[in-house]
Structure formats: structure tokens, C-alpha cells
Amino acid sequence: MTSKESSLSLHEVSYEAFPQITCLDKKPMLVITGASGSGKSTIIERVKNLYPGRFVFSVSYTSRLMRPHEIEGKDYYFRSYNKMEEMINKGKLIEHTIFSGNIYGTSKNKLTKLYESGKICILDLDLNG
């Protein structure tokens, strides 16, 4: 964590409140969205640290190649572009986007399993455009 990040208070982050959105079996979901590099991961870690055991992070699927420091199932679920297209066509993703020529998306099945844990699910979604 950089000194800039450590001095940032969760209460100083600007946000826009939306009506509560529920999904699957009517449990709340926390969606953090913003441009790449805008601090979404920092906010997610702060929320998880402020409320330990209450939130669970939804790991996205991607068609991009795994980077040397990344871990399958922790950073992303890495799949081929064709496999990601198949998941989209079969309705297996609750949302998806294409960024820098790669597909990113959230699995309905994985999200259902996270909800079954009884915790509040956090989604990290990039804005495109």
C-alpha cells in the first residue's frame, strides 16, 4: 500500500447511492464500478477489513492470459476466448464486457455459490468508454 493509499479514508471516497438492488434469492450485492486504476480494489479491501467476515469477493472470468504473479481462482478464472464466448451464448454470465480485446464476466453459478455462504457479495466492474 502506498502512502497515498494509506492516507485515503473510506469516508473521503466519492460515491453515488442507488436504490438497493437484489439478485438471485433477494440478498443484497455491493457493486464497485469505475475506470481501470480508479481505486476499486483499494475500496473493496477497506470494506472487507472494516467488516471482517461479512463480505465475499466475486472473482471474474477472463479470456486474457494469466500474468506471472496471478493465481487462478484468486485474481481471475482464466479461460480461452472461445470458452468465454460459449459461456455468454449459454447464458452462464450475469454480466460481461470486452476490454482491450479480452472478455471479462461474472459467472451466475459462482455468484450463486457465493450467496449461499450467507455473506454479501462484492462485484468489481470496470467502466468502458
TrEMBL record:
A Gene Ontology term for the protein's cellular component: cytosol
GO molecular function, one term: GMP kinase activity
Superkingdom of this protein's organism: Eukaryota
Pfam families, per database record: Guanylate_kin
Presence of the UniProt keyword Ubl conjugation in the record: no
UniProt keyword list: Kinase, Transferase
Gene3D superfamilies in UniProt: P-loop containing nucleotide triphosphate hydrolases (3.40.50.300)
Span of domain Guanylate kinase-like: 27-129
InterPro entries recorded: GK/Ca_channel_bsu, Guanylate_kin-like_dom, Guanylate_kinase_CS, P-loop_NTPase
Homology family: Belongs to the guanylate kinase family.
Record-given protein name: Guanylate kinase (Trinotate prediction)
